[in-house]
Write a structure and sequence with these properties.
The complex is a heterodimer of chains A (85) and B (411). By secondary structure, chain A is mainly α. Chain A has a single domain, classed as Non-ribosomal Peptide Synthetase Peptidyl Carrier Protein, Chain A (Orthogonal Bundle). The N and C termini of chain A lie close together (11 Å). In chain A, 22% of the residues are buried. With 411 residues, chain B is of the alpha/beta class. In chain B, the strands form 3 sheets. In chain B, strands 5-4-6-8-1-9-15-14-10-11 form a 10-stranded mixed sheet, with helices on both faces. Chain B has a 3-stranded mixed sheet with strand order 2-3-7. Helix content of chain B is 33%, strand content 22%. In chain B, helix 3 crosses helix 6, helix 7 packs across helix 13 and helix 10 packs across helix 11. In chain B, strand 2 and strand 3 form a beta hairpin. The radius of gyration of chain B is 20 Å and the shape is globular. Chain B has 14 helices and 15 strands. Chain B has 2 domains: 242 residues, 3-Layer(aba) Sandwich (Peroxisomal Thiolase, Chain A, domain 1), CATH 3.40.47; 151 residues, Peroxisomal Thiolase, Chain A, domain 1 (3-Layer(aba) Sandwich), CATH 3.40.47.10. Classes of the chains: A mainly alpha (85), B alpha/beta (411).
Chain lengths: 85, 411
């Protein structure tokens, strides 16, 4: 799985949990909370959907790694790779 | 009600299975239009139920809908509609002086059942249990969602009062206004109960769930062939104000709360006690300083259970049996039993009688149960009368809670 594909997975999850947001111009290097109306409960939703849909666990101490699309891809890439191995 | 502030209704917002405004609701009650449909209940299959089709996104973002509850959404819709109906200057008011008091029969069953179903797909591993569970299921949820949506910083809570909850919410708000705790109160009741299979299964195994080949004929209070309750969702919220405040701002005063009572059977969890129900109505009359003949409509609670309707008619007969000026009707025959919203919705269905002078009927009575016979029971067709000045709205619930609320036309 490519990092771009991982970014799309995260965007698809956000589209579901924040359906009022316009996701057409989300900048990958900017913090998600700085460009979208997301709160801590929403980030817990992202963690839950990664668990439910993809079997990926994000420990609480790693939550800051989900700050931006770029950091999501960087952090989640090895986890997705490990799943497909 | 001596020495207490007089409290009036100045606005109403509602959603019921047969109407999303009070005008539409009233029109359908006078035209005999029920709206019950079959829904697929988890584990149970098709069951008759009353479903609301209000436009939830009119007042809520889609994210609010996703994270919140159906009861909260119903409350938000009704609160906005009530405020609009009241003409209250909500933008300029001190929102710390607004209270929200909503009756609920139950809350949290829907969300809990949904989560158990959710984790059943993950071998019941609780790490898949949603973190939204607690804010969704706390008992104040529906009222709290209203305050968050409208930016109300005054008090909010729900009043758990089984199926007497709609009346109880109204009474609670009126009392808070009398005490001077708030300047305006959003009161009434809400229900999301059609989304929990537990309510249906519980009634069914109690022998109290309605069944009929035609859903619109399933809710039939007082009919000899009645066989139980049609569960419905819905909501109804009123704006209440002190009379002095309402008159000062030139509000349209829909009616005045002149009497009420809540009491308890202290006897049986499910079988109502006619003696205590009658006492409840009598105490409300006493508080209102009215006699039975002064009440023009008794809006009954009857849910179409074989035993419950007979018990209630015994109570109504004991209080109003000799009053030729009192007419008796029932709204559940049109919309089913909206649980926590029932009392508030059923009052709303009758309030327009102050203006149009009609008593809406109880429909679906093909053959009146002889044990439910009562003079002036309005059956199947609306009845025009000379004048309607007072309504006594009854709502009763499990664990023997009884409520009676008397509303008088303001002149």
């Amino acid at each position: 799985m490519t990092k771009d594909e991982i970014k799309q997975i995260v965007l698809d999850i956000i589209a579901d949990i924040a359906p009022d947001e316009d996701l057409s111009n989300v900048k990958p290097d900017i913090r998600l909370r700085d460009q979208l109306e997301l709160d801590s409960m929403d980030f817990l939703d992202i963690v839950m959907e990664l668990r439910k849909q993809h079997g990926i666990e994000v420990p609480e101490e790693d939550y800051p790694e989900l700050a931006s699309l770029d950091s999501c891809a960087q952090y989640l890439h090895p986890k997705f790779e490990a799943l497909s191995a | 009600m001596e020495n207490l502030e007089r409290i009036v209704i100045t606005g109403v917002g509602l959603t019921s299975p047969n109407g999303n405004t009070i005008g539409e609701f009233r029109e359908n009650l006078l035209n005999g239009h029920a709206n019950i449909q079959e829904i697929d209940v988890r584990y149970m299959g098709k069951q008759p139920a009353g479903v609301c089709d209000f436009e939830a996104t009119r007042y809520q973002k889609r994210k609010e809908l996703r994270n919140g509850t159906r009861a909260g959404s119903i409350g938000i819709y009704c609160a906005h509609e009530a405020l609009a109906n009241s003409g209250y200057d909500f933008e300029k008011c001190d929102r710390s002086r607004v209270g929200v008091y909503l009756g609920i029969t139950e809350h949290g069953n829907v969300e809990t059942e949904n989560e158990i179903f959710n984790i059943s797909k993950f071998a019941y591993d609780t790490k898949f249990w949603t973190h939204h569970h607690n804010p969704r299921t706390v008992a104040n949820n529906p009222a709290g969602e209203v305050t968050m949506n409208l930016g109300i910083t005054g008090p909010h809570y729900t009043v758990g009062a089984a199926c007497a909850a709609g009346n109880a919410g109204i009474i609670q708000g009126a009392q808070m206004l009398m005490l001077g705790e708030v300047d305006m109160a959003l009161v009434g009741g809400v229900s999301e109960s059609i989304h929990t299979f537990g309510i249906f299964a519980g009634f069914k195994n109690q022998g109290a769930l309605a069944a009929h080949t035609d859903p619109n004929c399933a809710s039939r209070p007082f009919d000899a062939a009645r066989n139980g309750i049609v569960v419905s969702e819905g909501g109804c919220i009123y704006t209440l104000e002190r009379l002095t405040d309402a008159e000062r701002r030139g509000a349209n005063i829909i009616g005045e709360i002149v009497g009420y009572c809540i009491n308890s059977d202290a006897k049986d969890a499910v079988l109502p006690d006619p003696e205590r129900q009658a006492q409840c109505m009598q105490k409300a009359l006493l508080k209102a300083r009215l006699n039975p003949e002064d009440i023009h409509i008794v809006s009954t609670h009857a849910t179409a259970t074989p035993a419950g309707d007979i018990q209630e008619i015994k109570a109504v007969r004991a209080v109003f049996g000799k009053s030729s000026s009192t007419h008796v009707n029932n709204t559940k025959s049109f919309i089913g039993h909206a649980m926590g919203a029932a009392g508030a919705l059923e009052l709303a269905g009758n309030l327009f009688s102050f203006q149009d002078h009609y008593v809406h009927p109880t429909i679906n009575v093909d053959k009146l149960d002889p044990e439910c016979e009562l003079p002036n029971l309005v059956l199947n067709q609306p009845k025009q009368v000379d004048r309607i000045d007072t309504i006594l709205n009854s709502s009763f619930g499990m664990l023997g809670i009884n409520s009676a609320l008397i509303i008088k036309r303001h002149s």
